[in-house]
Amino acid sequence: FISVMLLIATMFLGFNACSDDEPIKGNTAIGSQIKKMTFGNYLTADISYKDSKPTGSKIYSPYFPLLHADVTVSYQDNKIVVTSKGNDNEGFGLDGDWALTYTLENGIAKNCVSKTPWENETVTSSFSYNSEGYLSKITAKTSSSTEVIDFVYNNGNLIKYDYTDSNNYKTTYTITTSNIENKSKFPIELYTIATEIAGGRNLMFNSLYLSYLGVFGKTSVNLPQKVSWKYYNESENCSFTYKTDENGNIASVKANYDGEAMNFSFSY
């Protein structure tokens, strides 16, 4: 559980407040600027900005002194490029060099080409949106496989997503929504998708990284209370407990997964 959550952390390192440029279409508001994220006692991410846009992050661990990674975000015409160089002997998924190139249309991601050390192959992802501006489908293809995720919303909140793997096996994730407003525009409900999806490292983790920018359309109005899914014959769930600051932003999250817990904190 810890290794999965820390790996997810590597992709949350550039979340951003609104820039001076034209607002990204599809997003009604951009969340508060997150400057530091801490994941238990294992990992800390310091995020840097220029002109209100994230330029990268330094990842380090007080628990594992040799573990570190440098993430860089660059902006081009209709493109965002994310690269990372890391050293990790602990199995947290920070090791090696990787690169992702997102192509945008009217500020919204339409496809992504990713090259990662984990699978040692190129993954091409495409993204579709519904009429309300929410992400409705992600299709990821390699030379030998195809993975698809379909998203379902109700009253501005993600309530379900179906993941279909390359063998045509489908896993359904059901989301119970809390009554806490998601003022930070932080996509908590997408955390657990990476626990079961092999392609999550190059697909969903990076979607999470850019989701806060509005690059993947609107974010759910409310924070999730629980995500449940059934994998073959086993039913599992991940529940969330929150604390907010005086501005209503997420200050900390306690994620409980299968009897284990991980605490996350955020500084703005």
SSE pattern? HEEEEEEEEEEEEHHEEEE
Say how many strands there are: 16
> Which residues form runs of ≥5 with pLDDT under 50?
1-28, 194-207
Mean pLDDT: 76
Structural class comes to mainly beta
Sheet of most strands: 16 strands, antiparallel, barrel
Percent helix, as a range, is under 10%
Count of DSSP H/I helices: 3
What's the assembly state of these chains? single chain
Order of strands across the biggest sheet? 1-2-3-4-5-6-7-8-9-10-11-12-13-14-15-16
Strand content: over 45%
Tell me, what's the shape? globular
Distance between the termini: 26 Å
Radius of gyration: 17 Å
Structure report:
The protein has helices at residues 2-9, 193-196, 204-211; strands at residues 36-39, 43-50, 53-60, 68-76, 79-87, 96-105, 108-116, 121-129, 135-141, 146-154, 157-164, 170-181, 222-231, 234-244, 250-257, 260-267. The protein starts with a helix and ends with a strand. It has three helices and 16 strands. Strand 15 (250-257) and strand 16 form a beta hairpin. The protein is mostly beta strands and 268 residues long. Strands 1-2-3-4-5-6-7-8-9-10-11-12-13-14-15-16 form a 16-stranded antiparallel β-barrel.
